[in-house]
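Thread: UPF0102 protein SAMN04488529_10380, structure

OP (GT): Posting the sequence first so everyone is looking at the same thing. Length is 123 residues per the record. Can we get the structure tokens written out before standup tomorrow? I want them in the notebook alongside the other entries.
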Amino acid sequence: MKGFNKDIGNYGEDLAFEFLKRNGYFILSRNFRNRCGEIDIICKKDDLIIFAEIKSRYNYNYGSPIEAITYSKQKQIIKLCKFYIYINKLINYNFRFDVIEVFFNKDNNLYSINHIIDAFRES
């Protein structure tokens, strides 16, 4: 089951990647990671850097995708983003944290994408 979930997550990330490109986002990095964790997609649109967390689901048995991004997960993402900003010297940009939910239909190959802009903020 763990391998299946990883495959679903990877497929969802690929769909989100294409969705962002089609909507005018320039992809800076995919799966940026260090010891703190991983950021799924980092992109730029206009003068804004967007850190996107991608969550894919077949059903709501474990809640909606955005519910999986708990307060502690948000803090982990923010910490990792600060590191990315530092090493890439991006101090003159504004930032945003988005969540992209990918919903699959278990009966066929249809899917839907819900892009939640500015899903959370650093407190």
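GT: Both are above now. Quick notes for whoever picks this up: The chain is about 30% helix and 40% strand. The first strand starts at residue 26 and ends at 34.
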